[in-house]
UniProtKB/TrEMBL annotation:
Pfam family, one: Pyridox_ox_2
Keywords from the named record: Oxidoreductase
Source organism: Marinactinospora rubrisoli
Gene3D superfamilies associated with the record: Electron Transport, Fmn-binding Protein, Chain A
Protein name: Pyridoxamine 5'-phosphate oxidase family protein
InterPro entries cross-referenced by the UniProt entry: F420H2_bilvrd_red/Heme_oxyg, Pyridox_Oxase-rel, Split_barrel_FMN-bd
Length: 150
């Protein structure tokens, strides 16, 4: 069995800089759950925050389900991942501009964020902000497993 990541460490890992893969139940006939890469923000003990287009299938499905999951991983050996799922606690419409700026700085850095925000300013009126309270955690840290055969 692959060891889980302890609580404090899993929260720090989720708070780290990763592209998340958002998952949400898809109610359309014959569809598997919708999975999409997203920028997100999280601080230990807080909520997961994502932004997406108001009229996107992703937003519609999140509203319908009232919950979503996000999975992040370390793609370098020894591999680790954290997956968290929970209820939506808020949908801010239009998108929260402070969250948008914080995510742009998080992913692009303070130098590139202003140009990105200027080039995509329409998203401030086209996007919504979802907040999710982590409820169920799934984690794995393959370092102990990898050490057993190296």
């Amino acid at each position: 069995m692959v060891p889980a990541i302890p609580t404090g460490e899993r929260e720090r890992f989720l708070a780290g800089l990763h592209v998340g893969v958002l998952g949400v139940a898809d109610t359309r006939p014959g569809c598997a759950p919708l999975l999409a890469p997203v920028w997100y923000r999280y601080a230990p003990g807080g909520e997961v925050v994502v932004q997406t287009g108001r009229d996107s299938i992703k937003a519609r499905l999140i509203r319908e389900a009232g919950r979503f999951s996000i999975c992040v991983q370390d793609e370098t050996p020894p591999y680790r991942y954290v997956s968290v799922e929970g209820p939506v606690t808020a949908c801010l419409d239009p998108a929260d501009p402070e969250e948008r700026e914080a995510m742009a700085v998080r992913y692009l850095g303070a130098g590139q964020a202003p140009a990105y925000l200027d080039a995509t300013r329409d998203q401030l009126t086209d996007d919504v902000t979802f907040r999710m309270r982590p409820q169920r955690w799934r984690t794995a840290d393959f370092s102990a497993f990898a050490a057993s055969f190296s």
